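Schema walk-through. Below, the input block comes first and the output block second. Nothing else is stored per chain. Lengths vary across the set, and this one has 120 residues.
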Amino acid sequence: MSVARRRRLPDEVRASVVRAVLCLAFTLVGLLIATLASYAGSWLMTPALMAMGLGVFGTMWCLLEILISRQVAAQRMRGPNSASPMAGSRAPVGARPVPRPAGPPNGTAAPQPRVPTAYP
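--- output ---
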């Protein structure tokens, strides 16, 4: 039984995921402090709500950064001459090149013989 191994994410993608998790944790702490401060009637509710708003904005920013860095990493893996994401990926390592048809050495195409047709 073989287990398919997942490829490791590129460094910039992993770094953006770490930033997103930290920003989400910051937002959740702000939510917890705002909730407890509202129960207690404390003055800390206003700064906690502002911190939570900034945390939501920062989390969305980090999620967008993850998407962009994943696309950049995928495009880097496809290669420089790939026109679109649907164009395919690089040839596998160790793949043989496709043999070219023999022709004149100067690169010009040899004239093709005419095939006679049965009717005029």
